Amino acid sequence: MSFTDPTVVLPALLAAIAGAIYFYYFSPQANQPDIHPLQLAQQSSVSRTRGSSNESAVYRSKIAPEGSSLLAAPSREVKTLRDAIRLGRAASKNAAALVQTAVDDTKIIKSSSEDVASRTLALASGFRRIVSAADNAPVSAILYMHSSTELLLAYQACIEAGIVAIPISAQEPVDVVEKIVKHSCSPLIVTSSALAMGLGTRVAGSSLKHAVLLGDLDGSDESVAFGKVAKVVSMEELEKGPALERDDHSPSIEPSDPAYVLYTTADNDGSAPPRGVVITHSNALSALAGLTTALPATQALSSKDKFMSVASLANPANLNFINLALFHGCPIFICETADSEKFSNFSYQFQPTFTYLEPLLLRDLVQLFYSHIIKYPKLEYKIFMSGYRRALDSLMRGMVPKASFFDFSYFRHYRNVMGGKLRLMYVNGQTTSSKDIEWLRILHGAKVIPLFGSVETCSAVTAGAYFDYASAIETHNVGAPLACCELKVIDCQKPVCLTSEDKPYPRGRILVRGPSVASGLWNERNKSVELSDGWLELPYFGEIMPNGTLNVIGITATIVKSDLSPSGDFFVERLERLLISSRAITDICVVTPDSSAKQITIVAHPRPMELFAEANKSKRSYKMQEIDSYPWCAEYIRDKLIDVAAASDEFSWVAQMPKQDVKVKLVSLPFSTKNNLAFSDGTNNRVAAKRLVALGTN
User: Fold this and answer.
1) For residue 174, is pLDDT > 50?
2) 104 exposed, middle or buried (CB, 10 Å; 0-12, 13-18, 19+)?
3) Which residue ranges does the record assign to the AMP-dependent synthetase/ligase domain (predicted)?
4) pLDDT score of 413
5) Do residues 281 and 136 lie in contact, with contact meaning Cβ atoms separated by under 8 Å?
């Protein structure tokens, strides 16, 4: 046989080509880490000395090391939020930026950058005419609307006109809205006709004098009652008036002036008095600067990026990214939803490059794709999971899986369902499970960046590093401090004992300081956000990891004193975070046990396809709609959860309990605001879960 024989040469040539293709395109292991590992070894700048023996060192961003000033603005020419929006407006003219709004499942309304600019200035002028005679200063306006182009225009008009914007989610209970309206003492409300009629006489006796409505009142008793409270003018009519001129008639704004107010209630269910946190222009710009500089220069946002807003304007994190998109002149798509199918549909059409996902939507999105994948034939499912594990191995070794067989066969399909352009996906790192973050990073190929913050910090304290693909997977850390703030942990003895001397990592109450930290409360005389030497004490406990990132242990409200735990107490959300790593469930709430309780009760929503697979395997039947009536389902989920607990050092005591003392109640639907098992911020409604268990109903 000759080496020149075609029957030898051709197969050899094909084998060489196939080997080269595999090596360069189908083998993730052939790639090098995207960043040198040493650059992620220490993600914070640590102060040389500690302030006292009962606190940790002070941690800062490496961009603003000790001795340098914390970032207060994204650039020198930007002094106020209005300056930032004007710069973005100028940039968008060259990039043909636009605003798109999802009206229903199919219809999309587009607005060009020129239309947005002219309508914004016209509304700003109209708002100034309406409230020019108002005797309260600073002047504020309530923005109570469903997410839409008009809501975004009204927000920008308020900033342009120097009016304090007070966004209220249209999903808030009317009772809560009534309290906020009365507490705010605002003379102006911008809302839709439907929401206005829902308020009716509820806002009688408030400071409202004017209402700008989207749509027309229908003449009903509710509309007549609302008309008696405030003088009504249509938004369309205001837009026909003269536009606010940029320099001659625009009111002056100082960095210390309020830009907007974020309302919150202490117990998250509306029974506590409303509390409005004042976010000044300097606060908002500082958060903007922190988020901007958290990205490498090569990955900086520009007017070519597209932002998809799927949360309420009243959500502090989402509002930050709206400001970020406005500053960079990015096209914005508005679709407030917790439905992953709607999100995927509009994402496919808009092709965003960055977005912020609330925990409820994120969990639903993970479940949507997982339920599709688990329907694969058995062999194909094994092939997919093999690719999934290889992709996870790549992430843990510091590189995004490049073009591979699995990418072409599976992952790219799911990435394209999301539009195929998504490169930045921001999530709430404190309430999002590690498994969900891992899943999204692999399937969608985007950088999933966990965030941590509170209303008082513009929802911006930490962010995961761009190249740290293992963040929030191994340790559930929420990243290092942004360049706009610094943090530390201090010792506490009650309600739980944590100290900066704890091993292996310093632990304690989280304190934050910096220009992004708000200090004022709206309409609260002689009251302010309590600061000590500029430090704000958050209701969270955390630990500082060796690489300078923060791991949020839990919140004050979820500490449980219980004889079940060897230490006598535990953070219930930390236990939930562990248990939800099981692929058998999508949502879980551990019902807070009494201190002397001998059993633990768990409310959970199982993954439908997980039960379907087990039912086929064991030849048993069930109905998801009546899941609580099938004892084997609860037993199966309980065993899966016990297996997860058994592998944990911290909660192995759960697995050591008698099985009959670990009670599981299954619910047929995912946790949501509709079934009252979750709040809009993704946290569990523990009161409702405990009531559900007590009633014994599904």
Assistant:
1) yes
2) exposed
3) 106-522
4) 86
5) no
Q: Per-residue pLDDT for 535 more than 90?
A: yes
To 10 degrees, the CA torsion angle through 319, 322, 328, 330?
Answer: 170
Q: What is the pLDDT of residues 60-86, one digit of tens each?
A: 999 988 888 999 999 888 999 999 999
Note the pLDDT of residue 698.
45
Other CB atoms within a 10 A radius of the CB of residue 162 amount to 22
Q: Using CA atoms, how far apart are residues 141 and 162, in angstroms rounded to an integer? A: 10
Could you tell me the CATH superfamily of domain 558-698?
ANL, C-terminal domain (3.30.300.30)
Instruction: Kindly report the backbone phi and psi dihedral angles of residue 520, in degrees, each rounded to the nearest multiple of 5, phi listed first.
Output: -105, 150
pLDDT confidence bin for 262, thresholds 50/70/90: very high
Supply the pTM of this predicted model.
0.90
CA 287 to chain centre: 15
Instruction: Determine contact, residues 121/299, Cβ cutoff 8 Å.
Output: no
For the chain, the C-alpha Rg in angstroms (whole number) is 27
Instruction: Indicate the CATH number for domain 113-253.
Output: 3.40.50.980
How far apart CA 394 and CA 400 sit, in angstroms, is 6
Domain ranges of the chain: 113-253, 558-698
- Tokens representing residue 675 in the block: 């079934």
Q: Residues 195, 198, 199, 201: what is their CA dihedral angle, to the nearest 10 degrees? A: 140
Residue 533 CA to its chain's centroid (Å): 29
Predicted pLDDT of residue 354: 95
Please, what is the Cα angle at 607 between 471 and 318, to 5 degrees? 45
- DSSP string spanning 670-691? ---TTTTSB-TTS-B-HHHHHH
Tokens, residue 546: 């060796």
Judge if 113-253 and 558-698 fold alike in CATH terms: no
DSSP assignment letter at 63:
T
| Region of poorest pLDDT, from 117-126, 256-265, 455-464, 523-532 | 523-532
CA–CA gap between residue 540 and residue 546 (Å, rounded): 19
Q: What is the pLDDT of residue 472?
A: 83
Percent of the chain with pLDDT over 90: 41
- Residue among 147, 168, 167 at smallest CA distance from 103: 147
In this structure, are residues 567 and 593 in contact, taking their beta carbons and an 8 Å threshold? no
C-alpha angle with apex 474: 472 to 475, nearest 5 degrees? 65
CA dihedral 619, 624, 627, 633 (to 10 degrees): 40
Residue 559 burial (CB < 10 Å; 0-12/13-18/19+)? buried
The Cα–Cα gap between 605 and 628 comes to 10
